[in-house]
Design brief:
Distance between the termini: 17 Å
Shape: elongated
Largest sheet: 2 strands, antiparallel
Strand content: 25-35%
Mean pLDDT: 89
Oligomer: single chain
Number of strands: 6
Low-confidence stretches: none
Length: 69
């Protein structure tokens, strides 16, 4: 077993840095009907798309993740 920082059996983690940025989430209100038609075969009711309207932009701070093995 490898030693990582003096602890036996702990494998080093290759962290991935995700930078801060702007996330656009949701569906523009004027596009809800078209999106619902386009994805009608998924069984998602149009009301669910309406819950995601209007589209909003939010700031997401930077963070790190470790890929799963």
């Amino acid at each position: 077993m490898e030693s990582c920082g003096g602890v036996m059996g702990v494998e080093p983690v290759d962290w991935v840095e995700i930078p801060a940025g702007t996330l656009r989430r949701g569906t523009p209100a004027e596009d809800v009907e078209e999106v619902a038609r386009r994805y009608a075969d998924t069984g998602v009711p149009v009301e669910w798309y309406r819950k995601e309207a209007p589209r909003a932009e939010i700031h997401v701070p930077g963070f790190r993740v470790a890929p799963s093995l």
